[in-house]
Amino acid sequence: MMTEPSIVYEVENMWKIVGLISQAEAVLSTSLHVRIISFLYLRPRLTWCGHERPKHPQFIALWDTDESPRCLESKNETWSVLQRYYGPNPNITQAATAIAYEKTVKKYLKSFDSWSSLVGWRRYSTGS
Q: Is a pLDDT exceeding 70 seen at residue 72?
């Protein structure tokens, strides 16, 4: 089982949450926003969603890796799913998350360019 202490964190300052996630070994949450930030920082992430939160599975299906765990409905699933991120041959790698992240950035920028042209905004390219 776990040898490191867990942190249960309740705070209203989003930058403290972002800082905590950026340094986390893994993130377990019910929050879609925490899931998104964990994805952006390439952190192993588990989200307890249930059926009452339809946006969670929609985000995971559209943006996250194919290997990433979908919504967990029970705390009993947590340890077995978390183990897929760790060990000598993990089923879910941070490399897969990095690839999904790059695809997400491209999708977002393409979408931004399409929608912003409708309102007269332009994104300025940095040449990359």
A: yes
